[in-house]
């Protein structure tokens, strides 16, 4: 291929990637800009009213929940990762896999299960009253529907983020520093705190920040427990009070906090690099635990699995058996079809956009492509309620303007074309979960040698041909993994679905939330079990990818 022909050859078919990248960036930025504009242009009376009434409470409760869940995930995830990585005790290999299972559970599903058991009419308190003869006012029992209860539910399902990243960091560390600390007379706990833990700090901090981002985005758990956070405030302002200005202003505050977390994550990754002084990676021989140490390891690693996975499944199955809900009936088949079709469309669109963005960056690496990838990843840090409000405001304005124009000029009522449509829901999911799709695909793409592309082009292949005939076949496992993760995330997503769904379009998550809100917990167990069963698929894939099955 001649030098003059090379640039022309290179540009053929590239316009499509440029357009897709620009559209994805515009879509991801739209809700952020719309929320900011709606909040700024909103009534000053709304801001004053929020400040005098609920704003302080929302901020305080959200901050308290973040501290409790972040601290709980930090302690639980780091401790369990250290025990299964550095210690040897019976059942370790099984627990190493089982500790990831709570990641398949939405926190609101755990909330339904434990409320059924621990609330005043539940089996635990009922049994306590039967055995002791006490009345309702004769004893004190922890209130599950509280800030502490919500923090516990979220901690149980989010600590695996810290566990997975901390475990990977501990496995990658050379044993030299730890062995040196032990040789100097330090005990295993002291060596862990002073050597292993500081070296794994960036990975642990990233896991904690992921847990915190999920915490501020949660709506189902806090709404069911009656805990007033920014997320519940956004939904109440939008749906209950029909005050879009208040919803946008609350969303802007939550957005600012989410973006602050993104900045902290970048600072943590950039400023916390740890380097091994010795190139020789010595494998640490696991410490064999006996006696009390072995019992401690069993309790610490087994309790999260019991409370976060095993016990909730047993409770939900028991609830579902006596619920009278027919999962195979026409009504539930409609819920299932709505959930699956919506998740499948969102997963397909998300992965197509992720492939286009990643391939554009491979063809034209630079500030533009890196900026596009950064903007596309921002959605993961933005709660679903914020994205929903940010999309609803501009598209509702567009629908109303178009309808008014068509009525005045042609006498035709167009109605609402985008507002309350499946298209808007899919857009919200693409923004929210693009980071998951990019992470899965780029993890495989970065393993492809650039010389492979150059060789194909020297043989006359166009960029689209290289992508279709070389990249996609090789990266099919990565594409399927990303699509499955997005699929399950959409199945579990609640706040964006509640705000954006068309009338009569209910998913399994919405059905579970509606039944639980009506105190029909037995009925809520049926769709909850389906969501959990689907959620187990990507968790098992994650276990396989990080090598848990081979250790």
Q: Which terms would index this structure?
A:
MetI-like fold, 2 domains, 76% helix, two-stranded parallel ribbon, 551 residues, mainly alpha, globular
Q: Could you describe the 3D structure shown?
A:
- Helix 2 packs across helix 18, helix 16 crosses helix 22 and helix 19 runs antiparallel to helix 22.
- The N terminus is likely disordered.
- This protein has a two-stranded parallel sheet with strand order 1-2.
- It has two domains: 269 residues, MetI-like fold (Orthogonal Bundle); 261 residues, MetI-like (MetI-like fold, Orthogonal Bundle).
- The chain is mostly helical.
- The chain has 25 helices and two strands.
- Helices cover 76% and strands 1% of the residues.
- The radius of gyration is 25 Å and the shape is globular.
Query: What amount of the residues lies in strands?
Result: under 5%
Strands, total number: 2
Helical content band: over 70%
Number of discrete domains = 2
Question: H/E series, N to C?
Answer: HHHHEHHHHHHHHHHEHHHHHHHHHHH
CATH architecture of the largest domain: Orthogonal Bundle
Class from secondary-structure proportions: mainly alpha
**Rg estimate, integer Å:** 25 Å
**Broad shape:** globular
Do you know the CATH topology of the largest domain?
A: MetI-like fold
Rounded mean pLDDT is 82
């Amino acid at each position: 291929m001649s030098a003059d022909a090379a640039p022309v050859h290179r540009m053929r078919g590239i316009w499509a990637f440029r357009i897709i990248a620009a559209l994805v960036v515009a879509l991801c930025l739209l809700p952020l800009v719309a929320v900011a504009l709606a909040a700024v242009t909103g009534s000053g009376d709304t801001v004053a009213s929020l400040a005098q009434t609920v704003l302080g409470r929302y901020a305080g409760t959200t901050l308290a929940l973040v501290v409790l869940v972040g601290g709980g995930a930090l302690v639980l995830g780091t401790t369990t990762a250290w025990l299964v990585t550095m210690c040897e005790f019976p059942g370790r290999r099984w627990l190493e896999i089982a500790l990831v299972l709570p990641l398949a559970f939405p926190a609101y599903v755990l909330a339904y299960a434990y409320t059924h058991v621990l609330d005043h009419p539940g089996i635990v308190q009922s049994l306590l009253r039967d055995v002791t003869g006490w009345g309702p006012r004769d004893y004190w029992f922890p209130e599950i529907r509280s800030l502490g209860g919500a923090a516990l539910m979220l901690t149980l399902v989010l600590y695996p983020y810290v566990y997975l990243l901390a475990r990977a960091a501990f496995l990658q560390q050379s044993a030299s520093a730890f062995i040196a600390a032990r040789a100097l007379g330090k005990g295993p706990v002291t060596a862990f705190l002073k050597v292993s833990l500081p070296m794994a700090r960036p990975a642990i901090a990233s896991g904690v920040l992921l847990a915190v981002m999920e915490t501020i985005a949660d709506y189902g758990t806090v709404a069911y427990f009656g805990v007033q956070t920014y997320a519940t405030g956004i939904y109440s302002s939008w749906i209950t009070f029909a005050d879009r200005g208040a919803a946008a202003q609350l969303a802007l505050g939550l957005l600012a906090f989410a973006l602050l977390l993104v900045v902290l994550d970048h600072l943590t990754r950039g400023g916390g690099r740890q380097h091994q002084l010795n190139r020789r990676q010595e494998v640490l021989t696991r410490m064999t635990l006996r006696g009390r140490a072995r019992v401690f390891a069993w309790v610490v690693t087994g309790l999260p699995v019991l409370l976060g996975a095993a016990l909730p499944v047993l409770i939900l199955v028991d609830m579902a058996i006596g619920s009278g809900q027919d999962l195979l009936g026409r009504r539930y088949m409609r819920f299932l079809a709505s959930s699956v079709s919506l998740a499948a469309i969102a997963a397909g669109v998300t992965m197509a956009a992720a492939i286009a963005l990643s391939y554009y960056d491979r063809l034209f690496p630079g500030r533009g492509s890196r900026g596009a990838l950064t903007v596309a990843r921002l959605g993961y840090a933005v709660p679903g309620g914020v994205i929903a409000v940010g999309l609803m405001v501009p598209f509702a304005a567009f629908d109303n303007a178009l309808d008014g124009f068509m009525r005045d000029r042609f006498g035709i009522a167009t109605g609402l074309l985008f507002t309350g449509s499946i298209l808007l829901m899919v857009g919200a999911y693409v923004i929210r979960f693009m980071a998951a799709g990019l992470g899965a695909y780029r993890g495989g793409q970065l393993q492809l040698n650039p010389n492979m592309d150059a060789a194909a082009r020297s043989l006359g292949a166009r960029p689209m041909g290289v992508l279709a005939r070389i990249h996609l076949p090789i990266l099919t496992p990565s594409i399927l993994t990303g699509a499955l993760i997005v699929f399950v995330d959409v199945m579990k997503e609640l706040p964006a679905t509640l705000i954006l769904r068309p009338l009569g379009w209910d998913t399994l998550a919405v059905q579970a939330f509606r039944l639980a809100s009506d105190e029909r917990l037995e009925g809520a167990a049926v769709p909850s079990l389906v969501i959990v069963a689907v959620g187990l698929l990507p968790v098992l894939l994650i276990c396989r990818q990080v090598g848990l099955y081979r250790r």
